[in-house]
Amino acid sequence: MKNKNKAMRNMLIGMLGAAICMVGAWLSFAYGKDNIRNGFIQSYWPKMHMVRLEAAIICTAVGIPLYYLGAKEMVKALRLSRRRGNISDLRMANLFDMGMHLSVIGFLFIHCVYITMAIVYKELFATSLMGADIMSTVEGLFYYLAIPLFAYLVFSIGGTSIAYMYFIVSDRMKVSKLCFFFNPLILFLIGELLKLTKLYYLVDFASAMIPFGYMLMLSAGMVHVAKMPVRRRRVQ
Q1: For residue 35, what pLDDT is reported?
Q2: Other Cβ atoms closer than 10 A to 163
Q3: First and final CA of the chain: distance in angstroms?
Q4: Which residues, including other chains, have CB under 8 Å from residue 15's CB and lie 6 or more apart?
Q5: In which region does residue 41 sit, left (phi positive, over 0), alpha (psi from -120 to 50) or beta (all else)?
Q6: pLDDT for 172-212, tens place per residue?
Q7: Is 180 within 8 Å of 169 (Cβ atoms)?
């Protein structure tokens, strides 16, 4: 692989971006001990400070471009790792490419939708509207955006993770098999299991599992790139 140092540096920057997105997710979705969940509506929303919501948006806006640098290098590394002429490798490389690009767009989109709902709920809560009317308004806003939101969520997490796990299992990546679990799908499922405990500190920790999964995946990518042979230019 050419420019291994540049690729590893960009992946490290991508990991930093994912970590910043984790901070944004905690600011948006960590509600503490006394929160009561009603569907996707959180009772803590009216109590959230606007500064916290603004900081969450800023973290995502800063983190996503940095993450994209690492995502591009990860896509390139897996494309170089596939076997030429192997149709399965090609399809999985294309699936990974699509999933990683959707994750860049999707995380920003999904995050902004949920923050918008929190802001709308918070602002309406300060009016004279009844609680049922407020919930109906916010739910209506959500359902207008539900189809693209869940489509981005499913294809970005599922497509990326399935292709990544394929490259691990088929020994295309020069990393430990333990890295099979370093992907957003597995971390998302672990997060859902943590939420079932009803322990608020585990529920709050689980709110950042998806960007954490991308960060771990990029770390495995760095190890893989470090072990890839350097392509030398042929002497004429």
Answers
A1: 84
A2: 24
A3: 20
A4: 70, 215, 218, 219, 222
A5: beta
A6: 888 899 999 999 999 999 999 998 988 888 999 999 999 99
A7: yes
Report in angstroms the alpha-carbon separations of 72 from 13, 100, 229: 11, 8, 19
Nearest-angstrom CA–CA distance, 123 and 115 = 12
- Residue of 186, 4, 161 whose CA lies nearest to 96: 161
Q: Which amino acid is at 220?
A: A
- Residue 42, beta-bridge partner list: 37
**Cβ atoms of 60 and 21 closer than 8 Å:** yes
Spell out the residues 6+ positions from residue 225 whose beta carbon is closer than 8 angstroms to its own: 1, 4, 7, 8, 11, 73, 77
Pull the structure tokens for residue 27. Answer: 């600011």
In whole angstroms, give the CA distance from residue 56 to residue 59: 5
Amino acid in position 91: R
CA torsion, points 183, 188, 190, 196, in degrees to nearest 10?
A: 180
Is 108 within 8 Å of 63 (Cβ atoms)? no
153/147 Cα distance (integer angstroms) = 10
Question: In 3D, which of 183, 217, 209 has the Cα closest to residue 71?
Answer: 217
Q: For residue 41, what is the enclosing H or E element?
A: strand 41-42
Burial class (CB in 10 A: 0-12, 13-18, 19+), 179: buried
pTM: predicted TM-score of the whole model, two decimal places: 0.89
